[in-house]
Amino acid sequence: MANYLIRSCDENYEYVVDDSIEPGLTANTYSIVFTGESSQSCFNVVSGTTDPITEGINSLTGYSNCLECLQQNDFSIFAVDCINPEISGPLSSQYFNELPFGNFYKFCFSESELTECSCLEMVEILPVSTPPFFGTFTGPFTECGCNEQPISAGTEYNVCVIDCSGNTVSITPPHPTWTNQQGRAVVLLDAIVLGGMNGLNS
Description:
This protein has about 200 residues and is mostly beta strands. It contains one helix and 15 strands. Strand 1 (about 5-10) and strand 2 (about 15-20) form a beta hairpin. The termini are far apart.
């Protein structure tokens, strides 16, 4: 019998458990029901440890990864608007194609003729099922605001210029940007905006 450090897939909780329950800790990810006060959730086995046990295991089921564990158990993910934390609530894990923690997602819904969007941070696993919502859900984004990074096209074009001291330096000039049919900005890296940063209007 050995003790193991386990960490929740949202990285909010850690416990030390033993593997005395059959068949033992043989996978990397588990849905665990505890004997104590801790809520059921999905956990990764981090390492063996000699630290004392902090929680007991009542039952467990092994999975190949955290997302599979969340979706097979129909768990929800608690989301908080990264600009207005008063806007928050659970989302079904079924909407995700990757483990969502550490990223941001844009949720938009329409009421009458008004469309509202929120940029949500995925915060915590909730061991409950959440019904589907009506709206659009896009992401992941790497920063609050859920701004899509522009797509680039072509090979980066740099310019060599002589500075005031007579040294030759390489600079990255401003590149033109256009919008594709999907509304995404596309930066043309192998072209230069004429007239500087403001183009021909400067």
